[in-house]
Amino acid sequence: MFDIACESLDLLVPPQQHTxxxxxxxxxxxxxxxxxxxxxxxxxxxxxxxxxxHAAADTLRRMVEERRRIYGVTTGYGPLAxxxxxxxxxxxxxxxxxxxxxxxxxxxxxxxxxxATMAARAASLARGYSGIGAPLYTLLLECLDRDIIPVVPExxxxxxxxxxTPLAHIALALIGEGEVTVRGRRMASADALRAANLEPxxxxxxEGITLVNGTSCMTGIAAVNAVRAxxxxxxxLRLVVVHSECLQGRVEAWDMRIGRxxxxxxxxxxxxxxxxxxDGSTRLIQAEPVPPRLDESQAVRGWLPEGELPQDPYxxxxxxxxxxxxxxxxxxxxxxxxxxxxxxxxxxxxxxxxGTVLHGGNFYGQHVAxxxxxxxxxxxxxxxxxxxxxxxxxxxTQNKGLPAFLRGGPAGVNSGFMGAQVTATALVAEMRTRATxxxxxxxxxxxxxxxxxxxxxxxARKTAEQLDLAFQVxxxxxxxxxxxxxxxxxxxxxxxxxQSRDLIAFxxxxxxxxxxxRSLAGEIARVAAQLDTEDWAAGTPLAMD
Length: 545
Fold this sequence. Notes:
- It is a single chain.
- This protein is mainly α.
- It folds into 2 domains: 8-214, Fumarase C, Chain B, domain 1; 229-289 and 308-531, Fumarase/aspartase (Central domain) (Fumarase C, Chain A, domain 2, Up-down Bundle).
- Helix content is 49%, strand content 6%.
- It has helices spanning 30-37, 47-65, 90-101, 111-125, 134-145, 164-174, 189-195, 207-212, 216-246, 256-261, 265-277, 314-317, 319-341, 366-394, 418-433, 456-489, 498-508, 521-531; strands at 21-23, 42-44, 105-108, 148-150, 153-155, 179-182, 185-188, 349-351, 356-358.
- A 3-stranded antiparallel β-sheet has the order 4-6-7.
- β1, α1 and β2 form a beta-alpha-beta unit.
- The two termini are 35 Å apart.
- The relative contact order is 0.12.
């Protein structure tokens, strides 16, 4: 049944789309799902996964022939599971499940999120506990590789019996109904399958419920969030170094010895990263081996005069603690998502080695819900830090001699980054208003069968939206930091670290220095979009394993 050769899918993919193939039944990570979702990797089914799936399908077939009572296979669904359904009605039972669940509303999920969902579902099914047949599974992989992407409304799932609603819209496309996009063009699924010489699926025993009964939508989106969040944090850390150079910050607070004294893993990594990024800078104040002595010769009637502050504001001094905590949250999130990608999220589960079927709740998305909400908080804090750095750079009372609002032209008639800073403040406020966790918003539904639910997909979607806003905040900060660096010493930015000069040159490739005032809206959008496509963590301690 599952005699899919590793290379057999090559014939089904247009030559121009050929990329490295990834074993969908292997030990996938969020980075793997991101690559598939972004079109950078094809998928394949390896022989070990194929064998597992064949065994499960064979066990399920035998149990159905024996007229065993199996939820969603020989019974109805939810509170209607008390009604037995004979095997002769299998296709109708599975198709009607798809029909009644395909009730999503709202704007379509992005193609990247749908691709991630399809990949995550394929990974779960490849664990070999679902009993899906080879023709349907092959069609799922072929649609993914051929870029036939179902149109999936973004709202309608509570993430309890899995992501029933969005996965039902994917299943609807696989049976030749609903709509898909093909290379950005929206069309009827039946037309797209016909044009690709693909046959719509005919659902066998358990195949409808197997497609929809898992956490694959929330997990796929969360996997994309994992990569984007790491890029966000890595870029934000690079900006911290340039910001500190603009204000002649002290590197003492970034000393690794402080990290060893409080050994949270994330904090220790963030103590390490700025030192590498700031290598070669002459604008940062180096720590003295021991604190200098007080100059008591300056005393007047026993009191010493006021001197300079011996330490920086928290936006510089507490970066290891702040970013380190955010990185620890991201690592927690990534561990949860990685485990979920390597799990069978379905019900019931087929245990072919024991010849049995067990009913349980592996479709329940609480792990991903909690992890997504936690990551959203860390993303907000990174954006908040960026906005506070921007506020300091633009405030003439705090920016150590830079022009007010980093204006380029004559004062008064030019306001520099005044408006852009207001936008950054508004974006952070917007993020805060969306910060209510979804993972605790349980509302009983489904005739009180689903009496506790997870809202995990809402949590993952909200986190994706928070990342969108955070990249825009960082884009504004990036434009301001580049302006401040050049105001310190000219376009060549003398004294700044090579990494910092490279970063400024990158920003300048999308937005020139601000002389006289101009609209920055387009430049903010361009920079934000570009920041979201670059792997800023590469080559730093924050890189994904």
